[in-house]
Amino acid sequence: MEPSSSEFLRGTLKTIVLKLLAEQGRMYGYEITQSVKERTQGEIVLTFGALYPVLHKLEQDGLLITESEEADGRLRKYYSLTPQGSQTAIQKVSEFERFVEAMRTLLHLQPTLSVHPPVSYPTT
Amino acid sequence: MKALDRQQIGILYDYLVRNCSDTRLARELLDHLACEVEHYMWIGLPFDKAFEKVQLDVDTQAIRQLQQTYHHELADADQLQTATLDDIVFENRNKAYGAYDLRQSYTIAMRNALILTIGLFLMLMALLVAMKERTWSYTSLSGIMWLVGLCATTFAGGNWYWQNIRQKLLTPEQY
């Protein structure tokens, strides 16, 4: 994770995880990091140190349920959304989209503002 | 994708358990690490090299940090749900000093004191009425007041005594 993007990522990690699970249904930790990496072409890389606390927090809040299955000689923990989790996912994604929209207008205002000549104060 | 054999998974698990005291966390990270090692092996690295490469990402510090995050976000949340205000106030303070115990027993002590006061008051009233009328009957109003007062006093006194004994049993010897 790049230091510059990690700052933005911290607040959106929950949304990312919920959105992915809403689309895929059932995923395990490594699968989530790989999926994020693939979709963003390596732009966003989730470290396990960032991902697992979020997963466990969501599980504790009752948004996710887990099932453990044995795969290749080890236990694999799959996460999926609860009904409450699906609702939260929809809500979080729409909230985030509104936020991104607001950020975009905010960032695009900048050039038009800088066109104006600098204010000159009268000297008395 | 190339799957790790049992022995290789064992090596990974040993590495995790050495760095991570929480076995539940270690078991979940095991799958994550194993997947990453498999990925590097699939690219063409031998197991040792792949494991070394994964260790660069998953160093001891990262695991420790993860564990701390766990304690903050999960354990505290668990405790907070059951914690009373006293627990929160005395979180980082000396509980053995005595103030914590006093606060803990405050409600019971208060209840006992209230019942004791009411009981004694009823008995006193009954006694005064009896002295004034110079007759005594358990079925009269004053008689019933006396009985109720006696019961309340006994209950409160007994409860107080029992609480004292229990506290002495629960408190470990300090000297």
UniProtKB/TrEMBL annotation, chain A:
Domain Transcription regulator PadR N-terminal: 17-88
One protein family per Pfam: PadR
Protein name: PadR family transcriptional regulator
InterPro entries reported in the protein's UniProt record: Metal_resp_DNA-bind_regulator (IPR052509), Tscrpt_reg_PadR_N (IPR005149), WH-like_DNA-bd_sf (IPR036388), WH_DNA-bd_sf (IPR036390)
Tree of life domain: Bacteria
UniProtKB/TrEMBL annotation, chain B:
Source organism superkingdom: Bacteria
Transmembrane segments: 113-131, 143-162
Keywords: Membrane, Transmembrane, Transmembrane helix
Keyword Transmembrane: yes
Keyword Transmembrane: yes
Protein name per Swiss-Prot or TrEMBL: Uncharacterized protein
Organism, as annotated: Fibrisoma montanum
